[in-house]
Amino acid sequence: MKIYTKTGDTGLTGLIGGLRVSKADPRIDCYGTVDELNAAIGLAGVGATEPIASALARIQNELFVIGSHLAVVAGTRHAEALPVLDNYAITRLESEIDAAEAQLPPLQQFILPAGSETTCRLHLARTICRRAERLLVSSLTERPLPPMVLSYINRLSDWLFVHARLANQLAGIPDVPWQK
Asked: Which CATH number covers residue 117?
């Protein structure tokens, strides 16, 4: 199978289930941004140490599930065949946030997205995650989403923030405060 199909040369792309839509369709923007987030998380994982590295790999798989749900034609047999991301994933993110925060000094002021290379990569992923969340919220008027998708993305941005701080701590680098 060739990687290029030429079917997108006219500005259309296919959803899972066969429907052709404009590449400017909000769904494409949503799952494209989730894909960008996934790539940023993969980059963050390159230099990350445990337990952050293995958690990032798991998150990548969960984002793939979310992306597939964004890319499928609703109500088709393809939609019903997709793996499901359950609420446990959100609960697990919350638990991991709490565990990481327990190792960190409380925040007393705003911090910059700076420090170690892993920290900076996690902060970059966090900002992409927030953009994905904004796009998903704006697309809700056209296509409802399972509530857990927004909850997961919202919690993930918090997870990325806390784990960026943890990556600095593990590297022996303090948070970089905002100089007002």
From this structure: 1.20.1200.10
